[in-house]
Give the backbone structure.
Amino acid sequence: MTKLITNALDFIPKQIGYILIKSYKEDGMAKIIVKDNGIGIAKSDLEQIFVKFYQLDTKATREHGGTGLGLSVCKGIIENHGGKIWAESDGKGKGTAVHILLPIEDMSKPIKTV
């Protein structure tokens, strides 16, 4: 969550930017959405942003640096917990929404010990 929020902070307009964070239960999964009104992402780049070392080629990206590992690490953690992560954007200048689905453990069942 921290990485998604700091990414959004880096790419929203400084005076009029917003970040919306929503969470709710959907079909037995926890759904989390981090949405902003930032620089947006071209549809052709949406899947690439989760690839190791990939960075969008923008002035804002160059200003904020980074290694291109943050979203790849997020994806690995989420998938190792049985979840899914993806991004949606209507294109450059139209903001981005990152969606996360994570399974909700049934706490009424006994915990298995090893």
